[in-house]
Every structure is written in structure tokens, then in C-alpha cells.
Amino acid sequence: xxxxxxxxxxxxxxxxxxGPYCTMVLGDMxxxxxxxxxxxxxxxxxxxxxxxxxxxxxxxxxxxNKRGVCLNLKTDEGVQVLYKLIKxxxxxxxxxxPGVTKKxxxxxxxxxxxxxxIIYCSISGYGQSGPYTNKxxxxxxxxxxxxxxxxxxxxxxxxxxxxxAIHDIAAAQTAIQSILAAYIHRLKTGxxxxxxxxxxxxxxxxxxxxxxxxFGKGEVPRRNGTAHRVSAPYQGYKTKDGFILIxxxxxxxxxxxxxxxxxxxxxxxxxxxxxxSIRAHHVDELEIEMENVLKEQDSAYWLDxxxxxxxxxxxxxxxxxxxxxxHILSREMxxxxxxxxxxxxKTLGFxxxxxxxxxxxxxxAPLLGQHNKEVLVELGYSADEIDTFLANSxxxx
Length: 397
Description:
Elements: E1 9-12, H1 18-28, E2 32-38, E3 51-52, E4 55-56, H2 57-61, E5 66-71, H3 76-87, E6 91-94, H4 100-104, H5 108-114, E7 119-124, H6 139-145, H7 166-189, E8 193-198, H8 199-204, H9 208-217, E9 234-238, E10 243-247, H10 251-261, H11 266-269, H12 276-281, H13 283-294, H14 299-308, E11 313-315, H15 319-322, H16 326-330, E12 334-339, E13 343-348, H17 372-378, H18 383-391
Parallel strand pairs: 1-2, 1-6, 2-5, 6-7, 7-8
Antiparallel strand pairs: 3-4, 9-10, 10-11, 12-13
Helix pairs in contact: 1-7
């Protein structure tokens, strides 16, 4: 079955998470991704465990469906190889600190002179402009600057980092949609362009409810635990044996919850709980009242009753429970494939289910420099030239 991005050629100089996640998704959709790793150690995630037969699982998770070249860009020969790669590429992506690509001779203006229609995407912590542009920035710094850490955690507790690298993934998703939009534009006009993506901007753009509260009423988001800022009940609640999530935020659901689940019709007329906005204002009192009832039965009892009455609800899983859930498995969110060194591997599946052009795992993450010869032969280099490059540390053997 043909894939949506078959024929799209991507040269990927990014490493760790945001850039590699972006190019993994492009590869999943059929793009030919050539990952160019730094000489001689490769992507930094190769040094991060856990390891299977000395191959990093972290690296393998986000670098499937790519061919790998380990190229020394501090040599003139290495830069010339990259220029040849760029000549017929559609997309180039990098995540160096701003200014480094200019020093290496691989900045947008240089590559545009080689390939005028190139779509060039840079991912950095703070972007290519602004007073922080030259600062090094990882996901946790982006979470701090965007306000995400300050608004996450229990109300009286310390600020808490979000449990995943959310700004990295936000930047990856921003890069994906931006590259595809630029590609559509190029199909119409023949014109490439430069795309500047930052971790901070990408995550900040997701804070839409918080921005609405601040711009509309001057409210600064506070830490609310699992509670929603403007809706209730919409959070985690303690039961006899654990915690569950209940989302009965609109009036119909709330009244159904009171009458059919907890059998507390008096809550409907309680002045503290008359409307959604009033309930949100009295969210702490509502939590106490609800947990006094919910603690009488186990989580499974309440989840079954809530489900039977059409009240949105769910468990709060540990990650191992998530990966064993029948729904997750039925949606094929866990896939298996064979790696030449690590052997049988499990990985996460494709979140979007295409009817005509589904995602596919065509190849595992490359070994360091695995496709050096294959890619350079395609570029027109002879076997003798490639051997010379290997001997002169232009390529990693």
C-alpha cells in the first residue's frame, strides 16, 4: 500500500527528541529520511539507557524508518557530502544552537543557493530571534518559561514538571505541521522556505484555556492538581481503594451523576453547586462531598456505574497498566518488529489511523553509520572515494 509521503526526501541533522520525533513521523508516513549523525559518537541518545545488546532503546524509539550516515561536518569533504545530499532533498531539519549552522556552512542561505526549493526547518530552545536566542534550552527550561511548571502540581505543593518532555513533543508536532504546510505551498508555487520552530513557542501555543482566562479576566493560572480551572466535577477523586477520574462538567451530566450514581438529589439544589461555574468556584467543597460518598466503594464499582449511566470517567493508570489495557492494544498502539542487533522490540504505534495510506514500520533505527556506503553510492561516490573518507575520518567506520 502506497504511503502519503512516498517520494519526499528528508535530510535530518537533528538529535535527541524534538527533531528526531518529527522526522520519525515523516518516515512513518513514507518519506525517505537520511539521518546525518555527528562524528564520531552519533546522536546523544545513543549514550542513554536502557541498552539492548549495547543499542540504546531511547535512540531506537524515535529513529525507525530512517537511513543513517555518520558524517564529520568539521571536514571540508564532509560538508561537500552534505551539499550533495541537499541538492535533491525536499526538507532539511536541524536543531543546533542558533549560529552554529552558519559556522559550519550549512545555514539556510547557503543550502538555498544549492537547492532553491529546499524547505529548511530549525528547531531550537528559544527560536532564531529575541533576547534569549543564544541561550541553550532543554524541555524543562521551556516548561519553566512558558509557565507550565508553575501551573502544574497540587495547590499547596511545589511547582511540578509535566511528566513527559511536553515542549519537545510540541515542537516536533509544530515542525511536522509546518513542514507539511510548506510542502503544500511548494507544490503550488515551487518555492521553498525557512521555518523557525522553538520549544518555548510550541508549548506556549498549547496553553489556550489559560490564555483565555488571563486575557479575559486577568486570572493567573494556579496549581489545581487534577482539577479543571473552570469546570466541576472534572478531576481525580479518591475511592475506597484508589483514584478515578470523573468528568460530569455540564449540567445534564451533573444532574445524572447526582441522581443515578451517588443518589444525592439534594446536591442539585445546593447553592454551592447550582451551575458549572459555581461548582468550579466551590471545587474544594465539592471534592470533599463527593469523596465522602466515593470512599464507600472500590474504583471498579464506581467506574462500572458511571459507565452504565453515560458519565465520562476513567482510571488513573500506572504506565504498565496503560500498556496492558485492552483498548490500547486493540488500537495497535504497541507494535513489534525486529532489530538486527537488539532483536525483537516493542515500540509505540501510529496515533492516526489512515484508511488509504497508513503508517508503516519499514526499517528499524539505523546502526551508527549503517548506510554510509549505500547513501554515498547513490550520490555518485566511488568505492575508492568512500574508503578514503573512512580512512580520513570523514565517515564513521
